[in-house]
Amino acid sequence: MTSSLPLRAAVAAITLAVASCALALPAKVSVTPPSGARLLEGQRFDLRVEGLGTGPFRATLTLDGAPLAFTSGAQDTVETDGISPKEGTAQWGGFNVRGHAIRRPGPHLLEATFTDATGTVKVSSTIQVLGRRADRADRAGRGPPGHGDGVKNVIILLGDGMGVAHRTAGRIVKYGVSGGDPNGHLEMDALPGTGLVSTHSLNSVITDSAPGMACYSTGSHANNNQEGVYPAHVVSPFFQPRVEYMAEYLHRVKGASLGIVTTADVEDATPAANAVHTGNRNAGTGIVDQYLDEAGSSGLRVLLGGGRRWFLPAGRFGSSRTAATDYAGLPADLVAAWGLPAAAAGAADPARDLLGDFQRAGFAYVDSASALAGLRGHAPEKLLGLFGYGNMNVALDKVAKRRGTPLADGTYVVDHYHAPDQPMLDEMTEAALAVLSKDRDGFVLLVEGAHVDKQSHLMDADRAIGEVLELDAAVGVARRFAEAHRDTLVLVLADHECSGFSLIGGLVGGIDHLKALPSEAGALDPATVPARQAAVGIYEAAGFPRYAIQPDGYPATMDIDGKVLVGYGASGDRFETWLAKPLPVIDSLLPGDVKGELAMRGYGAEPVKRASDASGFFLRGHAPGLQAVHTAADIPLSAASPGSDAWLDFVGVQTNTDVFFKAMRAVLSGRD
Amino acid sequence: MLPLPAAFLLLIAAAPTAAPVTSPTSDEAKATALPSLPLDALVASGPHGLEASPQARALDGRRVRLVGHMAHLEEAPAGAFYLAPRPVECDEGGGGTADLPPDAVRVVVRSAGEAPVRWLPGLIEVTGRLQVGPAADAEGRVASFQLVLDRAADLAASPAPPAAP
User: Does A594 contact B17 at a Cβ distance shorter than 8 Å?
Assistant: First the structure.
């Protein structure tokens, strides 16, 4: 008998390999929208079936048992839709249904199969479609929506990162407290409807600003960093499956307009998550291009904020436009199904003169507060305002220029940014409303106070409070507009809370004493109580701080005896002085000074000092890094609708996506 | 661990146990003779808005000495940092470079490769070759001014510095 062991081993190996192949199935198979997604009756969205494996690929998709025809994705090919990438040695296969809509309210079952060279995987997803009209149960026993319940305009005032404590701090600073009662209330406090909103995203309890806004504007959760899209594996974030925005829906069905006002760069997540569909909030060039290229879908008529750098052709000083942050060639089925003009397919065109294109499209352009004020009384049909190259400056720094109170070296922060004449948020809101109110079909207006979040990240309490006051002034403008135009719904809310902002006490010992304290930067021994820690007056020692409010509505100074002191539950490492953060003055750059600075620098266990807090006592942060972070805390919502009872729908605890459906129903009730 | 240069260069090491900045050497004398320009003199108003100043354009391609503050970004660019006339804190990574002033200079630290450059507070001095005009990094972030930081080897081999403008 010849030795059959090598042959048996070879057969066994082959058998095992074949068996292994037979057991390997396509991986990461999914159907979009994900289970639990909610859509409004008639709201457009994309569906997608994808998986990772070895081609050729095939897929099927049914909706409530009925087959859905893919608009892209060639069966039995490796390429499928042509926009699904390779991943290592494997390949993604994708099949899409673009621009679908479901008109029947209720639960709907999506069932899909995805097949590759190794086998077939089945997946399913249950989504919910909500009717455009609230039923009796939704209206908590109130009568059906009638003629008097009309809402035509929706104004959303979003304080980025603004939690309950931020609002309380703004109230204390602006009005003070006597005998236990606030001496006054903020504009946002006066809205009759108060609710609490959970702020989670599709992939985390802690969101960022992109899905944080998109949940309000689409009714769908999104992954962090993504806006107006569902997650997917495609070669460009702009090709991800879309979900229709509030503004797009209302423009499509009733001709409503869209206005976006922000103190941030207009490319930033919160403003963009009202009109732009992308899985990358940092793709600045493509984001701003899409504002204009798809304005026919969103009804965009007002865009005010910072971010001039994205509107200048590449090569022009200050331009940030690049092909790397742009997109070209939206899939043909997406363009067709969403009714986009051919030009909206996009092009990698960093040299585009986007500012000129906006103007050629009929947008009046302003770049300063003076120019904006010059439009009063004769508002244009469309308005673009870009008041800085990047983010606009914070309220307290803008106010300082207006008051003529410079830094110690005689300069102004706004001048450092070459944006000496920037409008306040209430002025921008007023200008936006003057344009949008011309539209008899109504409008959606997003007003963002962006720097509550930004200054909270930096643990700069004084500037964060200044931002709350700036947003509140804009709320006042919105309230007065709604009183005059009673078919308006006003919502004040936040995308998330930032920093775990807490009002922990009041300064004891006096501000002059605090300013005179020596540096405690080296006091790292836990047994030593820093004098600045002892200066935190807690419980009754906090007293009632009294800020002197100037006619412009802002404090004369944030550094007062008994100033309210803020701690951070989601802090990064910092040195805390409790003082308003100054900007160091650079009078001259002498080599000797530089040598001295350099000699002090080195590496080791010494904690990093912020230049502006060099004398404060060290506080180890809760979160890694040197900035505070977002929290999962619910945020407060305030609502008003003078001409209807729609505001009642927003009372109570709700999820962030609930807000979308409530607002849409308020607008669409009574409309078939 | 990344190496450190002589005292007047700040080539930042990623590891906290890197060696401290060394005391001044004769190389510093060469550095201080380099042309220098305050950062806020890099930009001027022109007929079409802001533009690089004539002084900045005169230094394009030349080795220069700049002093400023390292901008503090939550998500620092790989192998580089931004130098600004005054302390700048840029919040939430998603905001990118939106809080940088127009006269910020991106300083490329070649020896850092793809590693982030550890943030240092306070005034710092850098020398290197200035590039005036837009330059994009690998992630598409554009800077109007870029300085390629000198390496220690470059300094040892460099000729006498040019006269200041």
Answer: no
List chain A residues with pLDDT less than 50.
1-3, 12-22, 146-148, 584-611, 671-672
The model's pLDDT over A609-618, given as tens digits with 9 standing for 90+, comes to: 444 556 788 8
Contacts of B89 in chain A (CB under 8 A): 458, 610, 627
What is the distance between the alpha carbons of residues A190 and A177, in angstroms, rounded to a whole number? 17
Mutate to test the interface with B, among A201, A226, A317 (most CBs of B within 10 A): A317
Domain count, chain B: 1
pLDDT tens sequence across B55-99: 999 999 999 999 999 998 877 788 999 999 988 888 766 567 888
Name residues 55-74 of chain B within 8 A of A (Cβ). 67, 69, 72, 74
What is the pTM (predicted TM-score) of this model?
0.89
CATH 3.40.50.970 fits A24-130, yes or no: no
Are the beta carbons of A319 and B94 separated by less than 8 Å?
Answer: no
Go through chain A and tell me how many residues it has.
Answer: 672
Give the 3-state secondary structure of residue A562: coil
The DSSP output letter for A274 is T
In the DSSP assignment, the letter for residue B86 is S
What share of chain A in percent tops pLDDT 90? 81
Residue B153: pLDDT band (50, 70, 90) is low
**Domain A197-305+357-444 grouped into CATH 3.40.50.620:** no
* Domain extent at residue B119: 26-157
- Report the Cα A391 to chain-centroid distance in Å: 14
As for the ipTM of the complex, it is 0.79
Q: What type of residue is B28?
A: E
Q: What is the predicted pLDDT for the residue at A143?
A: 58
Within 8 A of B67 by CB-CB distance, chain A residues are 589, 594
CB A647, CB A639: distance < 8 Å: yes
